[in-house]
Specification:
By secondary structure, the protein is α+β, with helices and mostly antiparallel strands. About 35% of the residues lie in helices and about 25% in strands. The longest helix has 22 residues, at about 260-280. The structure holds flavin-adenine dinucleotide (FAD).
């Protein structure tokens, strides 16, 4: 197959426009597995790793703009203070080797419901910046991912970056797997507190065709938490929050776990992450 290796962003967008059948690649930790197992036979590979601009991040008008080529290792080391939920999720990805190669842009590109970087981005209302030779557009993450392994990327577009506000309060991420590393999530849950807005952001991973925001649970917790005095939520309120998160999930039975187990575990993850984040606040 052809191997395209643009030197800069402009060349990358031109190559993408000229070869819509080319498969973009950064870390290759999803792409190469698919190629090796014969699931992908692209006519060309578009290697983006020489496009240094894609590996940069910066503050941008009160938000952070994080290039698609920022690895998990760098997200943990460089963005852990500003985006603690994403950093916590990044720590659970694969192994050190996978975290060095794998990127958040690649997780978005793959759009797996089990992608660990995705729930924290949903819980914080991230927007995805897409670019082509026609221009750029920003899409809320919930509109970017449309189904299992499906997103709205056009054949001539690349993921440039994601935009997200630095954490306004504590953030948590919790994941259930059959062991402690190198494991695809059985289910996961991300939570972000914004005490100024009195908002609780949530997202369920690996228990539906896409990551799922638990809207009713967010409204319940936002309206029930003692934002003025900081009193701990009652066991009853934590249990209700857990129930609402479990109800929002849309899990299936598969090799990693049963739907019933996933629902149960999500209730537990929801209660725990809310209690941890609240005590941190
Ligand atoms: C052993 C192992 C363990 C793993 N463990 C985990 C885990 O715990 N949690 C988890 O979530 N994932 C895990 N993964 C999956 C994978 O590491 C992640 O999905 C990672 O984020 C992919 O990033 P990448 O840079 O390697 O992407 P690539 O493999 O290079 O690309 C992935 C997809 O995104 C597209 N793409 C990449 N960059 C762009 C761009 N700029 N514009 C448009 N499309 C783009 C590619 O075309 C492809 O469709 C694991 C993989 C392996 C092999």
């Amino acid at each position: 197959m052809e191997f395209l290796q643009p030197e800069d962003w402009e060349e990358a967008l031109e190559a993408r426009a000229a070869h819509p059948g080319a498969l973009p690649l950064w870390g290759g930790t999803d792409v190469m597995v698919d190629v090796n197992f014969g699931r992908e036979r692209p006519e060309a590979i578009l290697d983006l790793t020489r496009v240094r601009a894609l590996a940069e991040w910066q503050a941008d008008g009160g938000l952070l703009r994080v290039g698609a080529g920022v690895s998990y290792t760098r997200a943990i080391a460089e963005l852990g203070d500003a985006l603690p939920g994403l950093a916590a999720a990044s720590r659970t990805v694969g192994s050190p080797q996978i975290r060095n190669r794998g990127t958040i842009g690649g997780n978005l590109g793959s759009a797996s419901p089990a992608g660990d970087a995705l729930p924290p981005l949903y819980a914080s209302n991230a927007e995805i910046e897409l670019a082509s030779t026609r221009g750029t557009r920003r899409v809320p993450i919930g509109e970017f991912i449309t189904g299992p392994k499906r997103n709205v990327l056009e054949p001539d577009e690349l993921i440039a970056a994601f935009h997200v506000a630095p954490a306004a309060g504590p953030q948590q991420f919790s994941k259930v797997g059959t062991r402690n590393a190198m494991v695809i999530a059985v289910c996961s849950f991300a939570l972000a507190l914004d005490p100024d807005e009195r908002r609780v952001g949530t997202c369920i991973g690996s228990a539906g065709p896409t990551p799922i925001v638990a809207t009713e649970a967010e409204a319940f917790a936002g309206g029930t938490l003692d934002w003025d005095e900081g009193g701990a939520p009652s066991d009853r309120d934590l249990a209700r929050f857990g129930e609402l998160v479990a109800q929002a999930a849309s899990p299936i039975d598969d090799v990693r776990g049963s739907a019933a187990y996933r629902r149960h575990a999500l209730g537990v993850l929801a209660r725990r992450t809310l209690a941890w984040a609240w005590s941190e606040l």
